[in-house]
Write a structure and sequence with these properties.
single chain; mainly alpha; two-stranded antiparallel ribbon; 5 helices; 2 strands
């Protein structure tokens, strides 16, 4: 009986540890996803601003900054720190388009789907530890029965 009670306690501790690991893991996944969303928005905004800056060159002679494929390097023309290739159509499209909307990264909306599997894993840990306890009791009982001469 002491083994069964001990295994029940150990199984509760195992389930709690798995649940805590799930909570922490899901939290870090949310932080990573929010960082990716923020970086994507920053990149979209940088491109949009660069293309809008290129709008000052519409209707001007840009042969000096145009490559053999007809693409303008507006970065060399002063609209970016590095190379920034664009066409006049892309520039016109950026001028007519509003700025990228800053994403609303609601923590719980991202967190709950990442948390989903962890309660199931905690329940599995609870069951496995209890089954190991029952197996230990069965092995001990069988060994005692054999030792007593099958009585």
């Amino acid at each position: 009986m002491r083994i069964a009670r001990g295994m029940l306690r150990v199984s509760v501790v195992a389930a709690l540890l798995v649940a805590i690991a799930g909570v922490v893991t899901a939290h870090f996944e949310v932080i990573k996803k929010q960082d990716r969303i923020r970086e994507s928005w920053n990149e979209d905004t940088r491109i949009w601003k660069g293309l809008r800056c290129g709008g000052q060159f519409l209707g001007k002679d840009m042969r000096e900054y145009t490559n053999e494929f007809g693409v303008i390097d507006i970065g060399r023309a002063g609209c970016s720190n590095g190379r920034f290739l664009a066409t006049f159509d892309e520039i016109r499209d950026a001028i007519n388009r509003p700025a990228p909307v800053k994403p609303d990264s609601d923590y719980l909306a991202i967190y709950l789907p990442h948390l989903g599997i962890w309660p199931v894993l905690a329940f599995i840990a609870f069951c496995v530890v209890n089954l190991l306890g029952l197996l230990a009791i069965g092995v001990r009982s069988t060994a005692n029965w054999i030792k007593a001469g099958f009585r």
